[in-house]
Amino acid sequence: MGRTDLNQLTWFQVVAEERSFTRAAAKLGVAQSTLSHTIKQLEARMGIRLLSRTTRNVATTAAGERLLQTITPRIAEIEDEIAALTALRDKPSGSIRLTLSDHALESVVWPKLKPILRDYPDISVELILDSTFRNIVEEGFDAGVRLGESVEKDMIAVRIGPDWRLVAVASPVYLATHGAPEHPQDLVRHICINMRHETAGGLYAWEFEKGGQELRVRVSGQLTFNNSYAMIDAAVSGYGIAYVPGDIVERQIASGELIQVLDDWSPFFDGYFLYYPSRRQNLPAFKVIVEALRHRNRSES
């Protein structure tokens, strides 16, 4: 068989999957007559009928289906290897735009990007801090970072961080004056530091869970922020109880600046995921960023 065989097999695969010469020709960017002639050449060369044609559609014969099952994984392997070789030839370069929250940046993304970016000076990264749920396709972002439960279903999602939880904390001075809540409902009688959701516009209702019982408590107080780090500073200064990611208050809890309350009511949330449309994954620069951010268990590190 001649040198054009791989091209013929690839075109046959597209026709078989599309079940239409018209759609396959459009997908391949060739004339329908050229495509039909090529498939006929393949059938003549193999001496067997591969496609059954009617006025309405195209279907594979038994031999055609067997050929399709044989070539599909092999063509995919060849395409993957060619892409990998191209990536090796071309030093990854380009600009990657990400939208993410301040907590995602400081707790996961920046610590992972910082050590690898020096190795790829031709990759530039733009990090837009925003707690709203942006439409990354319409707004020109390559990817976004969200908690797993918030990722859109039509996106590819890659876990980049472990599960984490919010914890309720207050200063020793505040607790000495107002006492410590023993149940989440007690918070309605306390001074709390609120968080505003930029996407929905409303105040975040604090979520708690214990023994299968879930509670959402709406709190009130003098201060409202849309930034966890500002909430921590206000809590240290004695302005009330804050509900913030546990990993960013470890130092203040260890030093005694803050005391954790309602520990057994603080549930874990799905960790952060990088999400993006499928076409992005073929860009060498983007692959570098994804692999740098990908979450690995300690045993895999």
Verbal overview:
There is one protein chain. The protein is elongated, with a radius of gyration of 28 Å. Helix 1 (5-18) crosses helix 2, helix 1 crosses helix 3 and helix 1 packs across helix 4. The strands form four sheets. Strands 7, 8, 11, 12, 13 and 14 form a six-stranded mixed sheet that branches. Helix content is 38%, strand content 22%. With 301 residues, the chain is an alpha/beta fold. It contains nine helices and 15 strands.
Question: What's the gist of this structure?
Answer:
The protein is α/β, with parallel strands linked by helices and 301 residues long. It has helices spanning 5-18, 21-28, 32-46, 62-89, 102-117, 172-178, 228-236, 250-255, 284-293; strands at 51-53, 58-60, 94-100, 123-129, 143-147, 156-159, 164-170, 192-195, 206-210, 213-217, 224-225, 241-245, 259-261, 268-269, 272-276.
